[in-house]
Amino acid sequence: MDWVTCAYSAACTGVASRPSGFCLAHLTPEHLGAALGAITPGRLLDLRGTTVSSDLLSRVLRAAGHRPGRTRFDRVTFTGDVRLSGVTFAGDVSLDGARFERLASFFGARFEGNVSLADARFARELSFHGVTVRGHVSLDRAVMARDALFSQAVFGHGLSGERARFDGYAAFDGARFEGARFGGGAFFRGARFGRTLSFRKVTGHAGFDAAHFAADAYLSATGRLSAARARADGLLDVAVTRCGVDLRGVRVTGTATVRLTDSQADLEGAVLRGPATVTGRGASAITSLRQVQAPDLGLRGLDLSACRFAGLADPTGVRVKECTFALTPRGMRVSLRWPMLRWLVRRRTPADDRPTGTLAAPGASGHRGSRAGTTAGPPTVLAYAPDGLRRRAGRGPWLAWRVLGAGRAARRSLPATIADVLSAAPRSPR
């Protein structure tokens, strides 16, 4: 501790007040009245290490005119309910290592600076509902044993909850995380959510890298959303608008649902053990499905023209509907091997299967609305589509060709392919 402690006993860690040398909790009534009279609104308020009851906290806030300045409550133990409605903190507030033995309600409070709750412990409910913080809020390594509510709160420079632990229900619905230019957003790297997490209709960036969702999790954002290497033991529901989604290496045991609106998602290396669906609206796309393990994955309304499929563990479990693939180039190609002259017919193909060294004609990439590049009708099983998967299967390419079913698909489509080639070839005049 970097402060002079109370002289009442060696066990008391409260900051000593002058000239008595005792903390506010151990002052006599006469000395306490004098100490409270010295508190000035808008000035420093220091109660570090002190054990504070509900009555003492109320008297201190009244003495500060419910507008303290720089506030230092590090390692304070609050033995009663903490209610800060109507209090405006004009400076930074430090509650590092504080202990809240009962309800901690910041509802109705306003913070003009930063708020630090690093290593804080909340034995009962925590409410930040509707709170406005102009600065940054830190919940790093904090432990919330009961429900934690942050709905409708406004964070001017974001919130960090690295390795925080939410043992109860956690709600951030309608929260706004501003200050994106300065790294603002909500970031919960390595955090653990023991019960349902509701992160719906949130404005701003959000990061849950390496987080653990022990129950259902509902995530949304209007900025970039990242849940790389996260683990979800229950349901995972992700909904984003006009942003990128990083789900690389995510592991989901229950149902996984991803809804994109004018957004892009990267699922490389994801392990989706339960039913999974990814749907898109507007200009939505998936950039990678490499090394994905998903026995039941549905894709609908997505741009897959740049998506990589190499290493997909179970192509037979992927269903594609109303999605856009890349289009191969068409025209004539000259080769040194027989046949030396080849006519290329435009077809839908995954990005892995594009021919290398060939210049695509204008409009060769698939786009929404192109009949040649968009799947329609019943869902297509991906195992019969990508020849590139066969070429990248590693050892035993012929075995992979047979197992993936591409050979059977080629035999079934051979007459149609011949017809396309003949129709594309120029006819000699009679």
Provide the descriptors you would attach to this structure in a database record.
single chain; 430 residues; alpha/beta; 13-stranded mixed beta sheet; 12-stranded parallel beta sheet; elongated
Specify Rg, calculated over alpha carbons.
Answer: 30 Å
Oligomer: single chain
Share of residues in strands: 25-35%
- The strand order across the widest sheet is 5-9-13-17-21-25-28-31-34-37-39-40-45
Number of helices: 5
Q: Overall mean pLDDT score?
A: 83
Shape: elongated
Percent helix, as a range, is: 10-25%
Give the class from helix and strand content and strand pairing.
alpha/beta
The tally of beta strands, per DSSP, is 45
Please summarize the sheet with the most strands.
Answer: 13 strands, mixed
Low-confidence stretches: 356-372, 384-425
- How many angstroms does the end-to-end distance come to? 100 Å
Please describe what this structure looks like.
- The chain is of the alpha/beta class and 430 residues long.
- It has a domain of 99 residues.
- It has a 13-stranded mixed beta sheet, with no helix packed on it.
- Strand 42 and strand 43 form a beta hairpin.
- The longest helix is centred in the C-terminal third of the chain and has 19 residues.
- This is Pentapeptide repeat-containing protein.
- InterPro entries: 5peptide_repeat.
